[in-house]
Design goal:
The structure is a single chain. The protein is of the alpha/beta class. It is built from eleven helices and 13 strands. It is globular and about 55 Å long. It starts with 7 loop residues before the first strand and ends with a helix. The mean pLDDT is 95.
Length: 295
Amino acid sequence: MSFENIKYAVIGYPVAHSLSPQMQNAGFETIGMGSPYAKIEVSTEDLGRFVNFARKQLNGFNITVPHKQNIIPFLDEVEPNARAAGSVNTVSINDGKLHGYSTDGYGLEMALGEAFGLKIRGASILFIGCGGAVKAVSFHFAAHGATKLFFVNRTIANAEKLSAELCREFPGLEVASCATADADNISRLAASSNVVIQGTSLGLKNDDPMPVKPELIKHLPYYETIYKPTALLTKMHELGASTADGRTMLLHQGARSFEIWTGHAAPLAAMRNSLEKSINSGMFPGKPLYINDLL
């Protein structure tokens, strides 16, 4: 891909693992736009240099860790829910102006409906973890009518902080939190939940421990935001729970980004087929570009 043909990208640090280029380019190819989407590794120190490049060269980009919050000061406009959550994963660029959105919540909402037939309005949802992606998703769910949001986190102070932020923004919302070691309270919260969402990074490495004891949540549908068979996902399946992994969240949040950029309905079938092919083959092809390659 020549640099001049790059009009969209995903940035992160690291970003080599990202499957967004395969998925997004399948969508772009379907509507006759070629393959304009790349992955670019951008450190925190180089974020400003990338933004200057993007204003002149790109029509939009996605953001993954660690930049979902770092990008916000560089943007000209941010949608209200993304600003409240302090998380942006999609930027559209028009006449050099950068507009920020969060599609993570939409992506997970669609994924839960597809996997379990779950509707967010009126739902009670138990999260494991409360990092940036969980925060963005929880604000989306609260804004779309969830009635109870519960957080299980290793550091209880972080869960309590997120709970307090949600209560300020959504006064009628019921929230609660507990530590991952607190088995009694996990069982209590699980008994009042419709689904459990694992949102930590535990499971990315093969020797990672399970974030919670599966027996505490085994009666719930289980959604794993990591798109591979983690130890907890595998165990939950063995215990008879309905399970799904993060590929459908990636698909639907990416499809929403595609629609923001192009104004076209996302070609979901083509994007899904490309994503499934890459995940099932275990292939994560394509080295990332680096900011110095582009300037």
